[in-house]
Amino acid sequence: MRESSVRRPRHRGREARAPPSVEILEIAFHRASLATPHGSSKPERDRRRALLKVVRAGATVVRHLRLESDRFRRTPLSPFEATIVGERFGDGALDRSVTRVRRAEERIRGLQRETERSLPRLHGPELLGDAVRAYYGRLSSFVREVDPDLIRLREVDRFLSARPTVDPDRPTLVVAGFPNVGKSSLVGRLSTAHPRVADYPFTTLSIALGHADVGFDRLQVVDTPGVLGRPRRANPAEAEAEAAVRRAATIVLFLLDPSGTCGYPLAEQEALLARWHAERPDLPILEVETKADLARGDGSRVAVSVRTGEGLEELGQRIRGLVAPTATMPPVEIALEEDSAGIVDLPELRAETVAEPPRPSSTGGGRAPRRAVRRRRAPTG
Questions:
Q1: From the CB of residue 51, how many other CB atoms can be counted at a distance below 10 Å?
Q2: Which among 114, 177, 139 is positioned nearest to 21, based on CA atoms?
Q3: Long-range contact pairs involving 275-279 (C-beta distance under 8 Å, separation at least 24)
Q4: Tens of pLDDT along 234-267?
Q5: Contacts of 208 (CB under 8 A, 6+ apart)
């Protein structure tokens, strides 16, 4: 039969990838096969070759196992990251996988030491070859046992890499609310973020991060997926938004759409707002009505319109009032006034006149008096 007439099967989707253990063991055994020891006799070279195979294979496997889990060992997850990982993969699943991989490393090291001690007592290439093959077999079983954990570690790593890193030590403004109330559009006006904006719900499927300067502070602005207020039936995107409110927020900007164009009644939106107030009474929640160019509420909330720019300046002032300043630098106006006038006329910056010793004159006729120098006293506060 001609090759062109043979119909090859078509595979839909991605081809199945080999388990992580296959990749790791192939690299380790290939590296071990390249062992070329020196020795004065063939028995000595055989024994050294067997030893090199054991050492190289074990060290390569341990190194790759450590690379798979190093990210989670070096830097612990933030409370927000730990929450979204637990909700997506199960509580404690990541810690259990890291622990099992670490135990596999310890078992492989112990097996390597045990095999190394047994090789000097063996004579002949057959016995040495049997010992190396037995070592390879046990080594392979240890790596295959943690295949599910290696797969999980890779999935968690991809999951976190697809999301921005929210610094837990910086003030964070989380913009939340029902789908299609204008969260992404407002985040784009308040920060450096460029979230995807569309006129249909659930456009945002994961968090997006931008930054805004508030005085001397750098404010993180987090755009979140829409939440429908159903904690027990929340999809992964909603659970991620709820986690951002619970674990990452310094301030929550809760958006409500009184126009109803988002597709959800205002009463349902206010029910979610009431639940968050009850769950986090200590968390500042700034209530904002969006789409002010289409409809307005009773006037008790800040009303903004991203389309016309209405209310954005007032909203910025309200946000700055909620972010406590952390810097000790004086306001820019005072610094400019001091630079232009020489002395700031403030009670706490009183000037003193300090007389310095006279300076010798150029004619040698004694020391000429030096003019008084006005010095400012540093602020005590």
A1: 18
A2: 139
A3: 275/229, 276/245, 276/252, 279/246
A4: 788 888 999 999 999 999 999 999 998 989 999 9
A5: 164, 184, 187, 193, 195, 222, 223
The predicted model scores a pTM of 0.72
β-sheet bridge partners, residue 212: 219
Domains of the chain: 18-161 (1.20.120.1190), 172-322 (3.40.50.300), 332-376 (no CATH)
* 347-369: pLDDT as tens digits: 443 344 344 445 544 444 445 45
DSSP 104-158: HHHHHHHHHHHHHHHGGG--SHHHHHHHHHHHHHHHHHHHHHTHHHHHHHHHHHH
Q: How far apart are CA 201 and CA 263, in angstroms?
A: 9
- How far from 277 is each of 12, 226, 265, CA to CA, in Å? 48, 18, 19
Assess whether pLDDT exceeds 60 at residue 109.
Answer: yes
> Which tens digit of pLDDT belongs to each residue from 137-169?
999 999 999 999 999 999 999 999 999 999 998
In sequence order, what DSSP letters do the residues of 316-329 get, joined into one string?
Answer: HHHHHHHS-----P
In sequence order, what are the residues at sequence separation of 6 or more whose Cβ sits closer than 8 angstroms to the Cβ of residue 232? none
Mean pLDDT check: name the lowest of 23-27, 146-150, 200-204, 222-226: 200-204
Tokens of 46: 């055989």
Note the residue count of the chain: 381
Taking a C-beta distance cutoff of 8 angstroms, is the pair 84, 93 a contact?
Answer: no
